[in-house]
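Exam revision sheet. Question 4 asks you to relate a sequence to its structure. Input first:
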Amino acid sequence: MSEELTYESAYNELQEIAAEIENESVSVDLLAQKVKRAAILIEFCQQKLRATETEVSNIIRQMEKI
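Answer key, structure tokens:
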């Protein structure tokens, strides 16, 4: 994968995977692969959200000191 993963692209891919699974358009042969990819994307999004929350909290603390 040459492109850098962003929160938005990961979230969009997760939505696509969920829709495929909900619509039962994923073959049984690919289901485990899709679920595994979804788990990777979920972990990425969670890490990104935690990092953003920490960064925003730090900025707010710095602003309160001013």
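Marking note for examiners. DSSP finds two helices and no strands in the chain.
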